[in-house]
Design goal:
binds magnesium ion; five-stranded parallel β-sheet; 10 helices; binds deoxycytidine diphosphate; Rossmann fold; ATP-binding; nucleus; binds adenosine-5'-diphosphate
């Protein structure tokens, strides 16, 4: 599959490994290090959360799911809660200022320095707001590429009691994904930061494609 990625014009591992900093050792506390940020993109049900859990386990990243942060904000009865809930029910995107604030707070309050930011940025506006507020872009971007019918099947059989895992909302989320998230994916492809992963197969088969992206963190 690395060959496939290279053939598709994505950077191959060899080029990548010479370019990123190897994890440094020696007496620096994690918080003093420059954060290493991975954005994890893909449509609803493409398997982002599932693969993030494996990356956490294998490479010690901290997983920040934008959707989870927003759902926590709803259940904490914050002033934005009802706006967030309604937006999620409709399958639309929450205003970037809200989401970026939650991500920033989570990064700052965490001792770790390597992060997976899952389900973000979902729009060019998300991306630009993050860059303005945080000051830098991501180090690497994963994109789980999954056919729509597979995503629908997975979302409708995901049993987490989510208000947005129903056929009507999923249809809207897929539309939003195509119109708003694909431009972000194209942007990072152009930057040479995107790793496209074929998201069809067993969890293990998909993780095999993810492994080389993080090999220097072992
Ligand atoms: N490779 C896979 N094959 C089949 N089902 C999967 C696979 N990976 C994840 N799932 C299931 O599909 C659903 C959506 O996965 P999830 O990781 O929550 O995706 P996302 O975070 O992208 O929406 C979950 O119920 C999960 O258990
Ligand atoms: N950057 C983001 C991420 C999520 N949201 C909202 C809108 C999304 O449909 C919901 C759910 O996102 P989540 O990443 O948990 O969904 P999936 O794991 O892709 O199924 O949250 C958002 O508005 N902005
Ligand atoms: Mg998810």
């Amino acid at each position: 599959s690395l060959l496939d990625q290279a053939a598709n014009g994505f950077k191959n591992w060899k080029a990548f490994s010479t370019e990123i900093l190897k994890p440094a050792g020696g007496g620096i506390s994690p918080k003093e290090r420059t954060p290493y940020i991975t954005f994890v993109l893909g449509g609803p049900g493409s398997g982002k959360g599932t693969q993030c859990a494996r990356i956490v386990e294998t490479f010690g990243f901290t997983h920040l799911s934008a959707g989870d942060l927003l759902r926590k904000e709803i259940s904490s009865n914050s002033e934005n809660g009802s706006t967030i809930l309604n937006t999620i029910k409709e399958g639309k995107i929450v205003p970037s200022e809200v989401t970026v604030k939650l991500i920033k707070r989570a990064i700052e309050s965490c001792e770790n320095y390597k992060f997976l930011i899952d389900g973000f940025p979902r729009s060019e506006e998300n991306r630009k707001t993050y860059e303005r507020v945080i000051g830098t872009g991501p180090d690497v971007v994963l994109f789980f590429d999954c056919p729509e019918e597979e995503m629908v099947k997975r979302v409708l059989s995901r049993n987490e009691g989510r208000v947005d895992d129903n056929i009507d909302t999923v249809k809207e989320r897929l539309k939003v994904f195509t119109t708003l998230n694909l431009p972000v994916i194209n942007y990072y492809t152009g930057k040479g930061k995107l790793y496209k992963i074929n998201a069809v197969g067993t969890e293990e088969e998909i993780f095999e494609q993810v492994l080389p992206v993080f090999a220097s963190w072992r």
